[in-house]
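Entry 14. Ran structure prediction on the chain below.
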Amino acid sequence: MAVACRVLLGLIFLAAGANGLLVVFKLTPVLPTSPKAMEFFKLEYLLILEKVSEFICGILLITNRFVPLSLSVLAPIIVNILGFHLFEDPKMLPLALLLIVLEAYLVWVYRRHFAGILTSKAKMTEDA
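Output, C-alpha cells:
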C-alpha cells in the first residue's frame, strides 16, 4: 500500500510540475489549470520555483530516492494547495484532500526518518 501511495503522489506531482513548466515555456498545458491559481503566479519565478520542486520531488518519489526529503519539500506546497482550494477554488478540493491523505500516510510510514527533526531540545555537535 505504501509503495502505491508513494508512486501515486509522485505521479501527481510529476504531472503537475511538468504541466506547470509547459505554462512557464508559454506552451499549452496538457492538464487543465486553475485560472485563479494562475493569478497568483504573475511573478513567474514563483511558478518556476514551485513547478520545478514538484517535478523533482515527483521523480524522487517514483524512483524511491530521498523520499523523506521529498515529503518535507512537498508538505508546505500541499498545505498551500489545500488552503487555496478550500478558500479560493473549491472545485479541485477533492484532489487537495487526496494529497493531504497521501502525504499524511507517507509521513506516518516514514516517521522514523523524521524523528531527528522532532527533537525538542537538540544538541549541537562539535566540529572537529
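The two ends are 43 Å apart (CA to CA). Will compare against last week's run tomorrow.
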